[in-house]
Amino acid sequence: MLEIKGLTAEIEGKEILRGIDLAVPNGEIHAIMGPNGAGKSTLSYVLSGRDGYKVTGGSVTFDGHDLLAMEPEARAASGVFLAFQYPVELPGVGNANFIRTALNAVRRARGEPELDAVAFLKEARTAIKALKMPDDMLKRNVNVGFSGGEKKRNEILQMALLKPSLALLDETDSGLDIDALKIVSDGVNALRGPNFSALVITHYQRLLDHIVPDRVHVLAGGKIVRSGGADLALELEAHGYAGLEAA
Amino acid sequence: MTVDTFFDRSDVASLVGGSVHREAAASLIRSQGWPTRRNEAWHFTDLNARLRTLDLALPAPPPDAASLVPETTGPRLVFVNGRYVEGLSHSLPFVTLRAFEPGPCGSAILPMVALNSAIATEGAAFEIAEGSDAGVVFLVSVADATYDSVISLRHRIVLQADAKLTIVEIAQGRGVYLHNPVLEIELAAGAVLKHYRLQNESIDAVHVTTILVDIGTRAQYEAFTLTCGAKLGRNEIHASLRGPNADVHLNAAQLLSGVQHGDITTVVAHHAPNCSSRQTVKSVLAGAARGVFQGRIEVDRVAQKTDGYQMNQALLLSPDAEIDCKPELEIFADDVKCSHGATIGALDPEQLFYLRSRGIPEAEARAILIRAFLDEALEPVTDHAAREVFETAITEWWHRNKL
User: Quick one: which of B5, B30, B82, B268 has the fewest CB in 10 Å?
Assistant: First the structure.
């Protein structure tokens, strides 16, 4: 269970989050929608522990742990995964090596045995096939020379292998064509289950046709201004975000 | 100790007095003294300041240093305290272990080559016959210094036409010493020498290597040097492209911390048309370490269609680290392609966060990014045994420093 209470945060002295209250029970997928500049990405960065954001108030707990007190790597080990809106390129770092290092770091932190190269490659190849990614994706440097869609699929590949219990998907649909959107959504849906929850951050409703959320929240002006069921997304698509900031 | 005090020592005087050529070399460096910052080629590296503090003497005979010799995965030649140790080495048909006797030295001789000529007595002479492939040879120098020793080796490597050789050179040791090897290399037409070098000297040592290489028509000299050791180190290569379509690749990386000083100096002289020279030099500097890169590319009037490339990048891991970078292009031909670049930066916080967000602890994430930074420089190291030497050294450096 992810529980956010009265969360306020600023970047370089500018207040972005102005009191977020949100609870995502285990097994549920919630969507966060909202206009540009509403604080959607800031929320995902604050939850994953990126530097440069100052939490000025409130609390975030995940399965009872104080998430905000943890280093980013500890959050990952506890099951939090952020799929980046703009995945970072790592020249000189092989993708397979990167993902295996991450996977083993997380397994170590959870007290699980590490995977050797052979066992890892077997798992990775299965995941790659399921995501309809080219085989050479593991051999290439992390995100270097990847198309926008390949970068997003690489995020989903990492998620599939790290098997998080809480995924934060930050505009994972941006830059994806319809086929890639479907593949990425299938990747998320495959993880659905009682021990998986997700916060799907998106500007558009179309992703939510594929990943059907249990709840939809509208973030505007740094606050959740409306919450509802999956049909709220359709309503927003029809009427836009106009007027919501004031609420 | 000054140059004069060193050469006035009775053992040094009697060695030098045995040969007019040694005496000529000695008087040359005596007249100049140890290189100082006033010497333009040494402007960023004050060798004099360091050597003045040492009580230099010729090295003791090799002790039983088997435990200090690194593990190697191929045939090797081992020198301890500047002496060849047969019991630790393999005999190779194309190598002569020689007593070095210098010939006449010109007045243009470099000061540290002059020092070497004056006192070096041993070295390996490689002669690879036309068209043959001599495989991989480890060339190891170990120092075990109980006092401030000057260790001078003089190697000569000759590859006849279309011959091939891979050398993995490792220099390491313990104690305080000056290691001042000189390598003279001649590559005839079509010869290919891969020269991989690890300078992993004692942290109290001074290391100055000078490599003088002549590269003939279509010949290739492919070098990579990794510097991790020595309080003060300098790796100086003079590469002359003598025949058309020759190719030289002088890559290097240095990993320095504390108050280490590492200097990479190269002079690439294009004397023939259609040659290419490539250099990717990377420095990782922590603590108050200081790196120097001086790279000169000279292109003769006749050296049309020269393709020269030079890239120097530094990763500064602390606000007290420093890099001095001096690229120089001297071009007298009009149809050439020469480019150079230099970058200085810190670890990228975005990349660091990306790795950490995947569960990789911060220290490990930093290690991954540093290793990635070095990758491009390591690219020419295709030999598996050499790769392993470097990967091990990089990992050990990492564990030693825990940055």
Answer: B5
Task: Please count the structural domains in chain B.
Answer: 1
Between CA B192 and CA B195 the distance in angstroms is 10
pLDDT tens digits, residue range A10-29? 999 999 999 999 999 999 99
Residue B91, burial from CB neighbour count under 10 angstroms (0-12, 13-18, 19+):
exposed
In a domain, A245, yes or no: no
Angle A134-A138-A139 from CA coordinates, rounded to 5°: 105
Considering the entire predicted model, what is its pTM? Answer: 0.91
State whether residue A9 is helix, strand or coil: strand
Q: Tell me the residues of B at the A interface, defined by beta carbons under 8 Å apart.
A: 349-351, 353-362, 364-365, 368-369, 371-376
Into how many domains does chain A fold? 1
Show residues of chain B in contact with A90, CB under 8 Å.
351, 354-355, 368-369, 372
A-chain residue closest to B349, CA distance: A51
Of B323, B331, B285, residue with least CA distance to B307 = B331
Residue of chain B whose alpha carbon sits nearest to that of A73: B359
CA distance A9 to B184: 64
Q: Is residue A60 part of a domain?
A: yes
Q: How confident is the model at residue A134 (pLDDT cuts 50, 70, 90)?
A: confident
Q: Residue A125's domain spans which residues?
A: 2-239
pLDDT tier at B89, thresholds 50, 70, 90: very high
- Residue B260's nearest CA partner among B284, B233, B283 is B233
Q: CB distance B353–A51 less than 8 Å?
A: yes
Looking at the complex, report in whole angstroms how far the Cα of residue B364 sits from the nearest Cα belonging to chain A. 9
A94 in any annotated domain: yes
A83-99 residue pLDDT tens: 999 999 999 999 999 99
Domain that holds residue B151: 62-347
Tell me the pLDDT tens digit for each residue of B110-124: 999 999 999 999 999
Task: Measure the CA–CA gap between B232 and B238, rounded to whole angstroms.
Answer: 20
Summarize the confidence of residues B189-213 as an average pLDDT. 98
CB contact under 8 A, B358 and A102: yes
User: So what's the pLDDT on residue A180?
Assistant: 85
With respect to residue A77, please indicate whether it lies within any of the assigned structural domains: yes
Report the relative pairing of strands B83-84 and B95-99 from DSSP bridges.
unpaired
Q: What is the pLDDT of residues B320-377, one digit of tens each?
A: 999 999 999 999 999 999 999 999 999 999 999 999 999 999 999 999 999 999 999 9
Amino acid identity of residue B15, one-letter, is L
CATH of the domain at A16: 3.40.50.300
